[in-house]
From TrEMBL, chain A:
InterPro entries, per the entry: CheY-like_superfamily, NreC/VraR/RcsB-like_REC, Sig_transdc_resp-reg_C-effctor, Sig_transdc_resp-reg_receiver, Tscrpt_reg_LuxR_C, WalR-like
Modified residues (4-aspartylphosphate): D55
HTH luxR-type domain sequence ranges: 152-217
PANTHER family (UniProt xref): TRANSCRIPTIONAL REGULATORY PROTEIN DESR, TWO-COMPONENT RESPONSE REGULATOR
Protein name in the entry: DNA-binding response regulator
SUPFAM superfamilies xref list: C-terminal effector domain of the bipartite response regulators, CheY-like
Domain Response regulatory: 5-120
SMART domains linked to this entry: HTH_LUXR, REC
Domain of life of the source: Bacteria
Length: 220, 374
């Protein structure tokens, strides 16, 4: 744990302090805590955190904007989202913008600390809810991608059969260990499958954003 | 309903103004006609006096109908009576010779005033009634049926019916707009409440749960309760507003959302999963039965996954119980699990769908409900 630098972004002062205290007690180095998104984007370059624990609903700018700002200033930063109310589209947009982990605020302390540890180690943190969102997003992309398959735009990303299987099991609440046992895979392989589903979605999102920007002449 | 008709700022205000404008314009036409034909009337001076009376009555009705409270029966009846009186004395004033020459009657188009007023105040039937009364009186007093007199009466009847119809439409549209405005205000209020609750209560409840759950005894119990309330409140504020029309497609996510709790995790797509209301309700009920079963035999936690594959919709329910080996179905039946399973299968068969129940020791029991989209 020592040496891992964490930034906490949450507009609720009690939460911010509580989370910072929990992290410090667990041996993390809390380098900054902010109540607003713009402030977080401003200080991220100076405080060089490895992990940002980010509340998705901030008073000034959207979670997606915060994540884009953070990654523009410090591309290697990893973002673990927390949200109190699980606004599904917000969570999905944040994942597509580059967040690699998601947890409900009601998650247990041990669960939270484990999520921070895994985020710091570069592993995706999927709740069952997030797996359901990602599965739904791949199906949505496949459905809207079909009619214009000959037109512009990159082809929609697809899940392999194995990836679909793994995501469904994650969505049904199984741990990586249980999934590995059921499918006869190694823990590491299960983790890679999950990571892949996320990478493909984020890559597609970046390509689409770039294409959109070029089409609109915003590419500067 | 009727209260809305006189609501200030409603759609009928411009209609009343139009009636007033019609009366002034038709009065101007009467003046032109009388000025042209006065020489051929039996009593030209009385005709002039009648025009003056018509001008006064035009002013009275314009002012009278402008105020909603005065648009009642007294003014409507007085309006009809005054115009009827003018109509009845017209033949005497004009004289036989003028009538026989088929000159336009003294009041010509101005007769239409009360017809329009009655139509705007009460719809088609009232408009037609006023038109029939005036038309019959007009034809009767002339003593002979000329084509132009008949034309006038029929046009008046048509005007009464059409204007009455339009007036009803305007009132209905006004009421609908009123309802839409009220609904929007209620939705806004709900969204504001949801934001407030989200920013304050939910955060504190989540914090209480997180900081207290690892404590023993009462404190831990309180923290667990706080967590349950947090989940319930979250489901409440994210619930979709008022119930839609009965046969409109229903978003299955909303129906399944009721089952989400501290012990039941719900995974859905971010976009709506629309199904016909009957199918959505039955599918949600089957999922509920599976969850009840999971709560009885499962071991505490359960997960629900909703997937929309386009041609079919699948709801999977998994519990964290010990599960059972496939060759121990008899034992499962003895535990009372199969009865519920059969009920769920029956429900799904009615929808043209399937229910698949599987279990592996160590990873709980899984129920997979699939319904094809037609």
């Amino acid at each position: 744990m020592s040496g891992v630098r964490v930034m906490v972004v949450d507009d609720h002062p009690m939460w911010r302090e509580g989370v910072a205290r929990d992290l410090t007690e667990a041996g993390y180095h809390v380098v900054a805590s902010c109540g607003q998104g713009r402030q977080a984007v401003r200080v991220v370059a100076a405080t060089v955190p490895d992990v940002v624990v980010l509340d998705l609903q901030l008073p000034d700018i959207s979670g997606v904007e915060v994540i884009r700002g953070l990654r523009a200033a410090r591309p290697e930063v990893r973002v673990l989202m927390l949200s109190a109310s699980g606004e599904q589209q917000d969570v999905l947009d944040a994942v597509k913008a580059g967040a690699t982990g998601y947890l409900l605020k009601s998650a247990a302390l041990a669960e939270f600390l484990e999520a921070v540890r895994r985020t710091a180690a570069g592993e995706p943190v999927f709740t069952p809810g997030l797996a359901g969102l990602v599965l739904g997003e791949y199906r949505r992309l496949a459905a809207v991608g079909q009619p214009r398959s000959t037109g512009r735009g990159s082809p929609p990303p697809r899940l392999t059969e194995r990836e679909t299987e793994v995501l469904r099991l994650v969505a049904k609440g199984m741990s990586y260990k249980q999934i590995a046992e059921r499918l006869g895979l190694s823990h590491r392989t299960v983790q890679n499958h999950v990571q892949h589903t996320l990478n493909k979605l984020q890559l597609h999102n970046r390509v689409e954003l770039t294409r959109y920007a070029i089409e609109r002449g915003l590419d500067d | 309903m009727v209260a809305h008709v006189s609501a200030p700022g409603g759609f009928e205000v411009p209609l009343w103004r139009a009636v007033a404008v019609y009366r002034v314009a038709s009065l101007a036409y009467v003046c032109v006609v009388v000025a042209r034909d006065a020489g051929r009337y039996a009593h030209p001076l009385v005709a002039g006096a009648l025009v003056l009376l018509m001008a006064v009555w035009t002013a009275v009705t314009a002012i009278g109908y402008a105020v909603p409270a005065r648009r009642g029966w007294p003014l409507l009846l007085a309006d009809l009576a005054v115009v009827l009186a003018i109509l009845l004395v017209t033949p005497v004033v004009m004289g036989r010779a003028a009538l026989a020459a088929d000159l336009p009657t003294l009041s010509v188009a101005w007769l239409g005033g009360p017809v329009l007023a009655w139509a705007v105040s009460g719809g088609r039937r009232r408009g037609a009634t006023a038109a029939l009364v005036l038309g019959a009186a007009d034809l009767a007093t002339r003593g002979l049926l000329t084509p132009s007199a008949l034309n006038g009466a029929i046009l008046m009847l048509l005007a009464g019916v059409v204007v009455g119809h339009v007036a009803r439409l305007a009132v209905t549209a006004g009421e609908r707009l009123q309802r839409a405005v009220e609904l929007e205000a209620a939705t806004r209020e709900r969204e504001r409440l949801a934001r407030d609750i989200h920013d304050s209560v939910l955060q504190v409840l989540a914090l209480v749960q997180r900081r207290g759950e690892h404590l023993d005894g009462t404190a831990g119990e309180l923290a667990r309760l706080a967590g349950e309330q947090e989940a319930a409140l979250r489901a409440l504020i994210s619930d979709a507003g008022p119930a839609p029309a009965t046969d409109a497609p229903v978003d299955l996510r909303g129906l399944l959302g009721r089952y989400a709790s501290a012990t039941v995790s719900l995974s859905t797509p971010a976009t709506p999963v629309p199904l016909p209301p009957v199918v959505a309700r039955e599918l949600a009920a089957a999922a509920g039965a599976a969850l009840d079963n999971a709560a009885r035999h499962g071991g505490g936690r359960a997960w629900v996954l909703l997937e929309d594959e386009g041609s079919a919709v699948t709801v999977s329910i998994r519990d964290s119980g010990p599960g059972f080996a496939p060759d121990r179905l008899a034992e499962a039946a003895a535990q009372g699990r199969l009865g519920v399973a059969q009920a769920i299968r029956g429900r799904m068969a009615d929808l043209g769908g399937t229910a698949r129940i599987s279990s592996t020791p160590g990873s709980g029991t899984e129920v997979e409900l699939t319904v094809p989209r037609r």
